[in-house]
Design brief:
By secondary structure, the chain is of the alpha+beta class. It has one domain. Helices cover 44% and strands 19% of the residues. It contains five helices and seven strands; from the N terminus they run ααβββααββαββ. It has a four-stranded antiparallel beta sheet. Strands 1-2-3 form a three-stranded antiparallel beta sheet. A hairpin with a 2-residue loop joins strand 4 and strand 5. Pfam families: N_methyl. Keywords: Membrane, Transmembrane, Transmembrane helix. This is Prepilin-type N-terminal cleavage/methylation domain-containing protein.
């Protein structure tokens, strides 16, 4: 009688069980993509704010409105302080294209805060409480504005 080669049913079941265990332990690493996407989106918003601030500064310098700590409006209607967009909706909020439609934002004396548009309340306290936001702080006479990403709660 000729002996046939191949795998038994038990061997196949054992291999499937081992693959299942490996998949269960590896899946969380690959399924955590939403948090990474949120963090990347915040980095993109930071880049957009920094880029807009640089462009607005150039325009303010041309208009001669880059040397005052008092808010001034450019011909385009953007509010600037020291030539950079002010940390308000009339400043950086108006300078960044799409900010008002894609993000939730608010400002106070500590800066301009923006987060994802699915946030229900638009107060600085609520936005900063998410620990998933971008903060833009006004320029000073000696320093450009600062843009900070807080993504520990994403």
């Amino acid at each position: 009688m000729k002996r046939q080669g191949g795998f038994t049913l038990i061997e196949l079941v054992v291999v499937i069980v081992i693959l299942g265990i490996l998949a269960v332990t590896a899946a969380p690493k690959f399924l955590n993509l939403q948090d990474d996407a949120k963090k990347s989106a915040l980095q993109g918003l930071k880049g957009a704010m920094d880029g807009a601030a640089g462009i607005v500064y150039g325009k303010a310098a041309v208009e001669g409105k880059d040397s005052s700590g008092t808010a001034q409006n450019l011909d385009s209607g953007i509010s600037v302080i020291w030539g950079y967009p002010a940390a308000t909706s009339a400043g950086i909020g108006a300078a960044v294209n799409g900010l008002s439609t894609d993000w939730t934002f608010d400002s106070d004396s500590t800066g301009f805060f923006a987060t994802f548009s699915n946030t229900t309340n638009t107060t600085v306290t609520t936005i900063s409480g998410t620990s998933c936001y971008v903060q833009y702080v006004n320029a000073t006479s000696s320093a450009a504005p600062t843009t900070t990403v807080v993504d520990s709660g994403c």
